[in-house]
Amino acid sequence: MSTSTKKKDAGLHNSLVYIVQHWQLYVFFLLPALALTIIFRYIPMGGILIAFEKYNPIRGILGSEWVGFKHFSRFLSSPDFLSYLGNTLKLSVFGMLWGFPVPILLAFLLNRIESKGIKKKIQLCLYMPNFISVIVLCGIVRIFLSVTGPVNLLLGTQINFMTMPEAFRTIYIASGIWQGAGWGSIIYTAALSNASTELKEAAVIDGANIFQQIKAVEWPAIKATVIIQFIMQAGNIMSIGFEKAYALQTDLNMASSEIIATYVYKKGLLDGDYSFSTAVGLFNTVINVILLVAVNKIVAKMNDGQGL
Fold first, then answer.
1. Which of 106, 142, 199, 224 could hold 185 in an S-S bridge, CB 3.0 to 4.6 Å?
2. Are residues 255 and 284 in the same domain?
3. How many distinct structural domains can be found in the chain?
4. In this predicted model, what pLDDT tens digit does every residue of 159-199 receive, in sequence order?
5. pTM of structure
């Protein structure tokens, strides 16, 4: 055994001894975080029981009538089920297909800027939209796309884009890319900092063009990060927050804008059908988990066994 290995083993042993001797200190610091996690993350999971009950707020969860999978059957047999599922999947899948590569491309472009001052100014402009709240963003979109808005004035038309079902997905996805692409590029920009400058200089000397440099030097540096981000996003395909879809929704674009999340909100909070909305939300979560596991396995097979 080498001297360095012995030193590492001795250091690990000393650390374990110190932890055992002062375990009360670690418990003291970990207990609040553990308590908060249990109270706000695990205990509320018991609420999914109402998805299998005819929930009565007066009787409570334990006193309500058990109905089994009745609410799930009701949702799956609903004539609007395929419409809500299709709208949700279209927004998620198209959003990921169009939006996922943009932060990567931005990171590659930012990595090409040699002037630190210019690079910081560009990054500031790219990161700023992320700090605009969803509701404010939707208000800006509505103003820009209104009949008297800048877009119609520029085109010389009087089209109310917010009432067009065929335009809703484009508006939703494009505004999302504009808001989140810059912020999403941070993780790839950080990963690119690990790219070998020596290899890059050697590639330049060998006459490699920009695309060849990216393929040979920069892409391997961020490949693992890209895979992890892709798996996480693919696993959240069904997890579209209702806020943005609801804020951009109008009576005339409901054919495209009504997704599972907005349906759950309306059924649960507006109609007071807590059991049914919980069942729909649970169905959504189960699909997400299945997608996450499936995508992870597919990516692992395509990437020499490397997944999450």
1. 106
2. yes
3. 2
4. 999 999 999 999 999 999 999 999 999 999 999 888 888 88
5. 0.81
